[in-house]
Amino acid sequence: MREKEPKILAFLCNWCSYAGADLAGVSRIQYPPNVRVIRVPCSSRINPLFILKALQQGIDGVLVAGCHPGDCHYISGNYVARRKFAIIKSLLEYIGVEEDRVQFAWVSAAEGARFAQVIKKVTEKVRRLGPIEKLVKTRGI
Amino acid sequence: MQEVQRKIREKARNLLLAGSVDFVIGFEEGALLLRASPVFIHKEDDVEKLIWDSFCENNLAAYLTKIGNKRVAVVAKGCDSRSIVALIVEGQIKREQIVVIGIPCQGMIDRRRIEKEVEGEILEVKEKSDEILVKGDSFEKVFKKEDYLHPSCRTCKHHNPVISDILIGKEVKERAQVDEYAEVDEYEKKSVDERWDYFNKEVNKCIRCYACRQACPMCYCEECFVDNSYPRWIGKELNSSDLAVWHIIRAYHQAGRCVDCGNCERACPMEINLRFLTKKINKEVKNYFNFETGLDITVPPPLATFDVKDKQDFIDSGE
Amino acid sequence: MMKKISKEDMNRFIQSLLSDYTVYAPVNIDGIFSFKPITNFQGIDLNYQNSKKPPKEIFFPQSETMFEYEKGKVTSAEKVSRKRILLGIRPCDAKANLLLDNVFAGEDYQDVYYINKRENTIIIGLGCRRPLSTCFCTSFGGSPFSRDGLDILLIDIGNKYIVDVVTDKGKEILTDKFTEASEEEVKLAEKIKRETEKRIKSEVKIEGVKEKLDTMFESPFWDKLSERCLGCAVCSYLCPTCHCFDIADEAKDSQGRRIRNWDSCMFPLFTLQTSGHNPRPTDKERMRQRVMHKFNYFIENYKRAACIGCGRCILNCPVNIDIRKVLKEILTN
């Protein structure tokens, strides 16, 4: 039987990472099709509940990507977001959710090739973990 | 302790007589042994109800977000005073509304542990300066206070109130050498699955009474995320997944706000180890943002601000 | 009918029940007792005062699926698949189930989920030899050895149990290991009963409380009482007679479930209306509701207070509110 393909959810900020994904697309750069994208105005739009909800529903890995520090369209959104991410990331690891289930990256609008690289890396790491079991809501949803 | 109690009553009476506060929040004798109970004193005649002993475990700051525009005096231990600072910093109460009756705290007694160490029901309790004497039908036992403090008191580094308008009792020596994150460090060493199993076991004890939330001074949200119905963030059911999400986010929402008073854990009827989560949050807040809650009225909450040089070792930045 | 059985035989008896019944019995998890389905008699721990969570959850689970659906096909979950034995329940909690019957199996309303579980469960109670100072079952017409609401009552007399067979339902499951109790043994059981009952010192006066409450709806008493209340649901979730619930759907695509979960009048959400209006906006109204429901409305409806004196709310309240004191204060108000 073929191994089940991991499902990955990517939250991309509108101004950098989403544009980076777009650039990867128009430049015809190949990257794994495992990723589903949700566009958000800014990485600071991410409430850790979004991440947990995704894992609860059986998403195998979550990527949150935003502008590089200093490049935020809203000046400081990603700086504030970074603080939230640091806490939720370490808490999830602490309680025993595998480190690579939730990943973070900075990708600019000019980094189409890098976006593809990030997705490749994320997909590989999640594939290595296998399907998610922890946190998944098994009955009915 | 008797002296502290006498002074609390005296100060409370003076404040009420002078009309400088609408009421005083303190402790009265509990209905149960080994317990004290929060009490609201409105009239100077009632000040005799106020007590001070080793069972005044509740964090009274939890009541302050409900006082509206009243002026209130509150009996505050080290941890209570830190919560008061945190609430002021977050704009939930005004400094001038609160008269802090600060009391250096020696740590409060872990009643559950004492109850577990005797066979049968405790029917009589006597408190001495450093011992607790308990008696039952068929036993009599002496407990050394220092060995039976609440877990949160054992790692406490702020026994003395951080702010106070009236200070009662002598300042106590802080135990600077205590390693407050030792348990967290130990836990981090376990394997990822061991950690998950323990976490899962603990949260599955939860009955969703939300006593942890209600007891916490910092859980003052008008509507908690768990009560939101649109969007409904998490299910209402007792299932492992929803329970896990509840406990993860409850702890996460404490980032930069928890003073580790242990009020959540003591309120929990199922005796869930809740502090093992918030303690981790506190450790990371210290590690990443060099912040400790409730120590300085002028420092903003860490998650409401940032530093361009914040550590980002966990983010793939392409470098 | 008084029988007896040795403790070893009792263990074997429990083990034999497992093939035909799901057996719920007290289990000790990290020092907290609760009633759980067991797979082996060794999982039972009868060395308990009472369970933390009341056994009402056997008939009225905290979360209960009412039906499931998938692509238009609906499966009801009202019937239990297996007969059940509830073992080791205290007489106070058994009495609480009788109170719940008024609500879920009364004249006005028949709750199929509750009734089905109730009808398919045989209740074996264990007389209480360790009442606490917070116990006041005798004030509500109960006793540590009350037979009300039980099919069988066990009385621990040391190395064996005296078995008081209350109903035919209880009689049916007995095996030949249950032998006739001798006169001395019955006498010993009687003596234990009397002595234990005497140890319940806590007394609550309930007469007149309802009438008093009739006049107290607008009383400032509630302001005072609710001041220290945190607004959690420890008292209601651990109460063996509280029975409010909320219904929710869990759905995804074309499949889903309808679930009912315990709810508590101590939560603001309990009465929050779609408009945003909340008729019980503060702890004061909510606290009043809880006391009124137990000691006024319930008496109005069913001629009995919705309290059996187990003392769980007293023992577990985070701020040490004592219902005995509250009732006393109501009478003297």
Question: What's the number of helices of chain B?
Answer: 10
What is the CATH architecture annotation of chain A? 3-Layer(aba) Sandwich
**How many separate structural domains of chain A?**
1
Which outline of chain A best applies?
globular
The share of residues in helices of chain B is 25-40%
Spell the H/E element sequence of chain B: HEEEHEHEEEHEHHHHHHE
SS class of chain B? alpha/beta
Q: Helical content of chain A, roughly?
A: 25-40%
Class by SSE composition of chain A: alpha/beta
Give the integer mean of the pLDDT values of chain A. Answer: 95
Strand order, main sheet of chain A: write it out: 2-1-3-4
Instruction: Name the assembly state.
Output: heterotrimer
Topology:
The complex is a heterotrimer of chains A (141), B (319) and C (333).
Chain A: E1 8-13, H1 17-26, E2 35-40, H2 48-56, E3 61-66, H3 77-94, E4 102-106, H4 112-129
Parallel strand pairs in A: 1-2, 1-3, 3-4
Helix pairs in contact in A: 1-4
Chain B: H1 2-17, E1 23-29, E2 36-41, E3 72-76, H2 78-89, E4 98-102, H3 111-116, E5 122-127, E6 131-136, E7 140-144, H4 151-154, E8 166-167, H5 182-188, H6 192-203, H7 211-215, H8 240-252, H9 263-267, H10 275-289, E9 315-316
Parallel strand pairs in B: 1-3, 3-4, 4-8
Antiparallel strand pairs in B: 1-2, 5-6, 6-7
Chain C: E1 2-6, H1 7-17, E2 22-29, E3 32-37, E4 63-70, E5 73-76, E6 84-89, H2 91-104, H3 112-119, E7 121-126, E8 152-156, E9 160-165, H4 168-172, E10 179-180, H5 183-198, H6 209-214, H7 221-226, H8 234-237, E11 245-252, E12 255-262, H9 283-302, H10 312-316, H11 323-332
Parallel strand pairs in C: 2-6, 6-7, 7-8
Antiparallel strand pairs in C: 1-9, 1-10, 2-3, 4-5, 4-12, 8-9, 11-12
